[in-house]
Recover the amino acids of this structure.
């Protein structure tokens, strides 16, 4: 699928922006600092979220920096369009079906966070070394940072947001709280997703086994002993996870 | 990472056909090494051919031995009953690798094809003859703690990081490969190369070829085996040194022995001389020590990995002892 015309999308902020692409780019590059101020004032005035502001001001920055590329869009629109070539993708996340359009290089992690706004799954290292991005794909725990989104066509993804049932926390979530299983909380979604799978896999029969089979999730705060306790407690409790 | 085109294929033939027609293309299965390398810009295929639908996922017992497809997931192979009962050294080696999440994603073929984790290979700003032939080797005069002590060259001192491959070499496995010219089968020990003057070639896979299966011949190493992995952490780290040891015992006499090491060379390092020495000998500390001495013959270190020589000998002794007591 290819976009035939390289449409220059107007950012919605400022009515001062000229209509044609060339002048607009000049305007943006010359007035970059002013525009950042306008965004921050507007953001405070309308109470837009911090994330929204950062996204939009970054977009302006990107446009300002990329202006030579986009100026030549008319001549090289095929090359530019190819850079943004997207593929259809259908998958289920936490019980909801999604029909999406993604570039092949988008990871499952970035898809979940950026396109689906499910921020529970964390990007710790982005290289498969920390486990913070652990999710379940068709019931198995995997690292979403090393999984390409397009390779998950038709699969069922469960993220940390999919564990609780409404207001009722999952037993492991309860156990992490009562056992003080986290400090900063950044590794915690990945720890819990990994722990649920660890119990389901039948690898939580002793503290030693838990340590070995949770070794793919690291915690800079050092909450490990309490994480192991939480898992032991849920395993001993015998409730289905 | 740079963007790329993406195709899915359903047959070995179409996989190879697409590869032939697209010179910059590569296969992707589990992606646990490839996606990482692409993020770092170390490898940049212009097209990825997703081979996950290929019918290469069987684990079966054949008259010749255990045959398993290149797309079998590492975790599934490790948990397989057949592997557990008849080829436990393979199971131990698989379980020693990576993390549970990675083992759920990684395939057998990918484990064989994985690249070295040498930090100079991984850093595109550093000289590396493997990644960029002729640019030099940053590790030889640099930080080489994780690097080779056997079979290195003045062009490259990287090690192959796999645990599964060490067990496959110890167990005399064969590997099946398909290509435009058809199928071939070679001893697994001949698949990976030593760096020599061409470290950019990790293995002997020819252009446009695809690994389809691995076969481990029937053997009697069902009890006295041990895969010992020495690493900086208790788990989830690459080997400093590892040893796959297998013994077939007649009382306390060694009828048959296998020894291979990981973390020490560009390919799994078979200790043929040590094995030969052990045949017919008593399974004793003395003989294990002698075997270790023979096994470490020819070891050469590069400064930061000098410790691997003593550690290697101790690891061989310990692996044999643990195998004996298994």
């Amino acid at each position: 699928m290819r976009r035939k015309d390289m449409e220059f999308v107007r950012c919605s902020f400022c009515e001062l922006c000229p209509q044609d692409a060339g002048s607009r780019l000049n305007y943006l590059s010359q007035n970059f600092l002013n525009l950042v101020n306008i965004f921050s004032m507007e953001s405070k005035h309308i109470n837009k979220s911090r994330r929204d502001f950062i996204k939009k001001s970054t977009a302006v920055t990107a446009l300002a920096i990329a202006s030579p590329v986009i100026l030549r869009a008319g001549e090289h629109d095929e090359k530019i369009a190819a850079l943004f070539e997207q593929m259809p993708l259908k998958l289920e996340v936490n019980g909801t079906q999604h029909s999406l359009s993604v570039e092949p290089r988008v990871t499952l992690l970035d898809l979940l966070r950026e396109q689906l706004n499910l921020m529970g799954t964390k990007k710790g290292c982005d290289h498969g070394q920390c486990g913070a991005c652990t999710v379940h794909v068709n019931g198995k725990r995997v690292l979403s940072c090393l999984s390409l989104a397009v390779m998950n066509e038709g699969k069922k993804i469960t993220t940390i947001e999919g564990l609780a049932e409404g207001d009722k926390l999952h037993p492991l979530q309860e156990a992490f709280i009562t056992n003080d299983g986290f400090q900063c909380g950044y590794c915690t979604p990945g720890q819990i997703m990994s722990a649920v799978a660890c119990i389901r896999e039948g690898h939580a029969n002793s503290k030693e086994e838990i340590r070995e089979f949770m070794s793919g999730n690291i915690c800079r705060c050092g909450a490990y002993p309490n994480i192991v306790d939480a898992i032991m407690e849920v395993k001993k409790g015998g409730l289905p996870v | 990472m740079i963007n790329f085109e993406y195709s899915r294929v359903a047959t070995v033939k179409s996989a190879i056909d697409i590869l032939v027609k697209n010179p910059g293309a590569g296969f992707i299965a589990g992606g646990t090494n490839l996606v990482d390398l692409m993020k770092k810009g170390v490898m940049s295929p212009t097209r990825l051919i997703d081979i996950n639908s290929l019918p290469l996922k069987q684990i079966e017992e054949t008259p010749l031995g255990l045959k398993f497809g290149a797309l079998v997931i590492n975790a599934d192979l490790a948990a397989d009953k057949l592997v557990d009962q008849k080829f436990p050294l393979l199971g131990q080696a698989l379980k020693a690798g990576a993390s549970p999440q990675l083992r759920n994603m990684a395939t057998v073929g990918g484990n064989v094809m994985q690249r070295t984790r040498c930090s100079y290979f991984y850093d595109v700003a550093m000289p590396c003859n493997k990644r960029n032939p002729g640019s030099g080797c940053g590790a030889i005069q640099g930080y080489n703690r994780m690097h080779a002590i056997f079979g290195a060259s003045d062009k490259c001192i990287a090690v192959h990081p796999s645990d599964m491959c060490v067990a496959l070499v110890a167990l005399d496995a064969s590997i099946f490969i398909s290509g435009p010219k058809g199928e071939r089968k070679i001893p697994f020990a001949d698949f990976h190369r030593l760096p020599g003057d061409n470290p950019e070639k990790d293995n002997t896979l020819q252009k446009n070829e695809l690994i389809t299966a691995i076969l481990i011949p029937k053997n009697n190493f069902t009890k006295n085996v041990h895969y010992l992995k020495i690493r900086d952490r208790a788990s989830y780290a690459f080997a400093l040194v590892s040893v796959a040891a297998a013994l077939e015992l007649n009382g306390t006499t060694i009828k048959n022995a296998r020894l291979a090491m990981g973390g020490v060379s560009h390919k799994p390092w078979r200790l043929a001389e040590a094995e030969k020495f052990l045949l017919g000998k008593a399974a004793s500390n003395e003989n294990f020590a002698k075997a270790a001495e023979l096994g470490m013959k020819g070891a050469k270190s590069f400064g930061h990995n000098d410790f691997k020589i003593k550690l290697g000998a101790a690891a061989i002794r310990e692996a044999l002892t643990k195998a004996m007591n298994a």
In short: Chain A touches chain B through 34 residues (CB under 8 Å). The mean pLDDT of chain A is 82. The first strand of chain A starts at residue 87 and ends at 93. The beta strands of chain A are 87-93, 96-102, 134-137, 140-143, 156-158.
